[in-house]
Predict the 3D structure of the following.
Amino acid sequence: MLVCSCNFITVKDIEETIVSLLDEDCWQLIVPAKVYHAMEKRGRCCGCFPQVVDIIIRTTEAYHNGRHSTQAEIFDFMARLKQFHEENRRADLERRQKSHRAA
Ligand code: FES
């Protein structure tokens, strides 16, 4: 399924990139820009980023459930990851509202 129509990126492309990033460092915080950079792509309209965030969370959780990570480690990491993305979503929304008011 196509996620990013600007770059023609599918769910499978994104999932595979996330897994390869997690193979390098399984506790790193992954953001859409990091995924796109690894794929040598750039966000253009960035309208796909909320969906990419959902894929990052889902793929990261599945990755750790399939490894030897303890439930406590996974819970703590997923809570931090979700909080990080939620804060970014809120900051992005505030930034868009400010730029919309300024225009
Ligand atoms: S839809 Fe992904 S950058 Fe535009």
